[in-house]
Design brief:
The chain is an all-beta fold. The chain contains no helices and 8 strands.
């Protein structure tokens, strides 16, 4: 066997089912924050944020379907960011998010929420089309 699961197009022979919607439907009063290491507790091993260690350059990052994460950092050179939940850019300061790929799988990427964007949010994608 090649180890490729054609149904999901990945090399994991036993992939987790893909969620279809975030399970968090409205912004919590106190959402998780990218810059808070304890907010990353519960991240799967092998991904940025595992064991409450902030993601770093080269890490792949997953935002689970049950999370509403506010991106309040400036980082570049991340691997793939997969958003099953919600990834919202802060409206409190300028940010840069640089990654090879950002995949939004049933989740949401929020750049402008209820308030008009007052700051700059830069998204830099470095991956290729192939």
């Amino acid at each position: 066997s090649s180890g490729i699961n054609a149904e999901y197009g990945c090399t994991d022979p036993h992939p987790k089912p893909l969620p279809t919607n975030p399970t968090v439907l409205q912004r919590p009063e106190t959402p998780k924050r990218w810059s808070v290491s304890s907010d990353w507790m519960g991240t799967d091993e092998g991904f940025g944020g595992h064991n409450g260690i902030l993601p770093k350059a080269g890490d792949n990052v997953v935002i689970p379907s049950s999370w509403w994460m506010v991106y309040d950092a400036s980082m570049e050179n991340l691997g793939t960011i997969t958003v099953y939940g919600v990834l919202e850019f802060t409206n409190e300061k300028d940010t840069v998010l640089g990654a090879n790929t950002i995949l939004v799988v049933g989740g949401k990427l929020v750049v402008v929420g209820d308030d008009p964007l007052k700051v700059k949010a830069h998204i830099k994608l470095t991956g290729t089309r192939d």
